[in-house]
Specification:
By secondary structure, the protein is of the alpha+beta class. The chain folds into 2 domains: 91 residues, Arc Repressor Mutant, subunit A; 51 residues, no CATH class. Helices cover 34% and strands 23% of the residues. The chain is built from 5 helices and 6 strands. The strands form 2 sheets. A 3-stranded antiparallel β-sheet has the order 1-3-2.
Amino acid sequence: MELTPEQAGIIAHSLGVNLFHAKQSSKKRDKVLPADFHRNYFCASDGHNDWPTLESLERIGFVYRFVPTDSGFLTYWHVSAEGIKWFRQHFDSIVNPEPRVTIPRVGDVWDFYPTLGKKHTTRKRIDRIYWKFSVFAGKAVPYIQWSHTPKARYIDDIRVKSFLKFKAIRLISRK
């Protein structure tokens, strides 16, 4: 069964897991669930932003509500054993989603670094994407026609190489 990100977030919050931190962190310890959760409740009142999501989780059977007699208008929602089981099974796929493939589109601006160093970047804009037959590949392959943006801090590779060559000659001649 698939849950929406809001539903998974409510289950994680109820169990005391910071799902946003677990997704953003690169540490292995942040991507592992504890053996026992230190809490199991979500406090909400009627009219809360997450109330419809909580009711949908209740219909599935992943949470159940508890209304204490002394709380007044507050309702406590607890994650059921079935909800905890689902969360443990799907935690890895929630925290480590599939990497997205970036598809180039006309008008996109990409940053490139020259081969000699990362001291300056080249910003290029995609003007046209077209297919061309490649003898080497033996099939049609996409070609991208680039242009430099006006704000680009771009130095031709030839200028960079000649600049470095002259700088090296000056440093050698000083000694």
